[in-house]
Description:
Layout lengths: L1 H19 L5 H16 L9 H16 L1 H15 L7 H13 L5 E3 L8 E3 L19 H18 L7 E4 L4 E4 L4 E3 H32 L5 H30 L6 H7 L1 H16 L7 H12 L5 H14 L1 H13 L11 E3 L9 H5 E3 L10 H20 L3 H7 L1 H11 L7 H26 L2 H11 L5 H15 L8 H13 L8 H6 E5 L4 H4 L4 H4 E5 L11 H33 L1 H6 L4 H43 L3 H18 L7 H12 L2
Helix pairs in contact: 1-2, 3-4, 3-5, 6-7, 6-8, 7-8, 7-9, 7-10, 8-11, 8-12, 11-12, 13-15, 13-17, 15-18, 17-18, 20-21, 25-27, 25-28, 27-28
Amino acid sequence: MEGNTTGVIVERLVKSICYSNGMRDDNSVSRCTAYATRLLESHLQAPPISHQELASLFVDKIDKMKGPEAAEVMTNRLEKLDQLDTLRNKDQILYMLNRLSERNNDVIITTSKPVDEPAIIHNNFMDEDVVSEEIVYTNLLDSKKMIPDIIQDLVYVFQGINGNYFQYSEEEDRYVIVADFQLSRSNLILLSRVSEMGWLYRKIHNWIRIGDELTVLDKLNQTTRLFVSSIEEELQEYLKTIAIFENQIRQDKFAINLHGLDVWIQEPIKKLKWMAILTDICSLNDENSSIKILHTIYQYRFYGDKEVSLLMKNILVKTSRGMIRMILSWVFEGIINDPYQEFFVFSDPVIKDTELFWEAKYHLDEEKIPPFISDELAQLITSIGKSINFLKVCCEEGHWILSETSDLYEESKDILLNSDSFTPTIIENILNKVKVLVNEKVHDTMLNKYLLLEHARSMKKYILLGQGDFIHCLMESLMTELDTPSSMLYRHNLLSILESSIRNSTIRYDPKDNLDRLDVQIRGVSKTKSKTLTGWDVFSLCYRVSSPIDVIFTEKVRGYYTKIFTFLWRIKRVEHILSYMWKLHNSCSKLEYSVNEVQNFLHKCYHLRNEMNNFIDNVLYYLMFEVLESSWHAFELDIQNAQSLDEFITAHNKYISIILEKALLTQDSQNIRKNISQMLLLV
C-alpha cells in the first residue's frame, strides 16, 4: 500500500512539473516518471576514500569550473557543513555532489551492437557510436546484480587478462565489451574511463617484455636495463595493490560500486599514465638512451604533483645506480667500468707515456654528464679519478688507495646504493671527503717522496743560471770549445767540461740525484745553417726529469726553460766578454800614457765599455732579481698551498708564464727583444 501511494505521489508530482513546462505528451511524462522512480529506488554508497579527500576533490572541480573565488566560497560552505552535528551521511552527500558536478544526464541506454560485434572502449574516451541514444523503460534490477561481476571482470582487465565482459582487440588496440547488458550512459562512460587502466598496464607490460628480450641479447646498456627493471618493480607494486583490492571484493562483492571503483583507481592509473609517458619518451633502441633516460626522469622529478614526484624519485634512484657505481669505482679505485660507453669520463688507450698521463690520458665528455651531477661536480669527479690513477700508475701508491679509502668506500656505497634516495648535495659531500684524502696524499707524495720543490729549485740554479759561481766556471771552461763551428761540437767534450765545472763550484755539495740529472744539449740545426753557427748558438743545459714529476715538467715546459736559458746565457756571455775587455784595457793602461796618439781612442773605448757594462748589469739585475727571485718566491707559496695535482701544475705554469712575460720572451714583446738581441750582437 505504501509503495502504491509513493508511486501515485511521484506520478502526480512529475505530471504537474511536466504540464507546467508545456510537456503534455504521455510518452514523455511516462519516461520522466520512470526516471524519477529509479532515482528514488537507488542507494547512494560512499566510496572507500576519506571525507577530506572527497572535499578536496570537489573543491578542485569547482576551482577548474568556476575559478578560485568560487572554490574559496565552496571551502567555507563545506567547513560549515562539517560543523553541523545533526546532519548524518556527510560522506554520501559529498560524493553525490562530486558525481552531479560531472554529469548532467543519467539516462538508461543499451549497447546497440550484438554480442559478436562488441562496443569499443579505449583510453579515456568512448566513441559516439558505441551506444545508442535509445532509452529503455525497464527497472535496473538485473543490471544492478551484474555490477559485482563487472567489477570482478575489470579486476582481470587491470592485470591485462581478458574477462567475460571485456576483451582486448588486437586489431583495434583497445578493450571492447563482448556482452549485451543494460547500463546507464554514465556507467558506460565510467567503464570506458576505468578500463583504460588495463590498456595502460598492457602497454607497459609489453614494453617491459621487449626490454627483457633485448637484455638477453645484450642490446641494452646498463642504464636502460636498470630503467626497465625499475619500471617492472613499479608494475609489480601496482599488481600487489590490485591483489589487495581483489581480495577485498571477494570477501564482500558489494563492498564497492562502479563509482567507488572510479574513485579508487585514480592513484594507480595516475602512476600507470606517467610510467607510460616515460616508456614512450625513452626509446629502447637509442644509442644515447642512457643520458636521455636520466634527463627525462630527473626533469619530471620536480613535477608539481607530489605523487608523481615521488614516483619519479623512486625510478631515478633505481635507474641511476649503474652511474653511481661507475662514479664510486672511478673516484675510489680509478677504474672505468663502462662496457657500454655511458660514463662521462673516458680513457684514451693510445696514451702510454706518463708525461702525457695527466694532460691527455683522461677526458671529460660533457654531453654524458647525468642531470644530478653539475659541471663543477663532474670536473671534481674527473680530477679525483685522475689523481687516483696518478698515484697508482706514476707514483706506485696503489696499496695506499686500498688501505686508506676502504672504510669511506663502504660508507659511500651504503648511502648512495642501498638507500631509497640521494641528492646532489650528498654526492658532493662524499666527493669532498674523498678529495681531501686523495689530495693530501698527492701533496705529500710530490713534495716529500719525489721532492718536487727541490727539483724546481735545482732547475732554477742550473738552467735559469741562479748559481753564479757554477755558471762562471762553466762559462770560463766553455769559451774555447763554444767558439768552434757547431758542426765541430762534440757531446762528450761538453760533458767533461760540465763535470769539471761542477767539481770546481759549490754545487758539488748538492744531492747526487739532482747533479746526475744535469746534462748538456746540442740543439739540432740544418746542415746549411750549421756552417755559419758556432757552439754558442746551439749549446744549452738541460735537466732530465722522470715520472712522476715529468707530469709537471713536461716537454713543452722544458722547452720554455731552454728558451729562458738561451736568453740568459747570451747576456751572461756578453757580461763575460765585457769583463775580459776590462782586463785587456787594464793591461793597456801604461800604453795609454806612453803613446799620445792612442790616448783619445782608448779613452773612448773605456767609456763605451763602461756604458755597455752598465746596461748589461742593469739587465741582469732586473732578470735575476726582479724577475726570477720574485717569481720564485710566489711559486714557493703557491706550491705549499696547492691542494691537488692540478694546482701544482697551475702554480708551475704560472711561474714560467710570469718569467717569460717579464723577461720579454713572449710574442707581445717581440720587438723589444729583437732590439736587445741586436745590441748584444754588437759585442
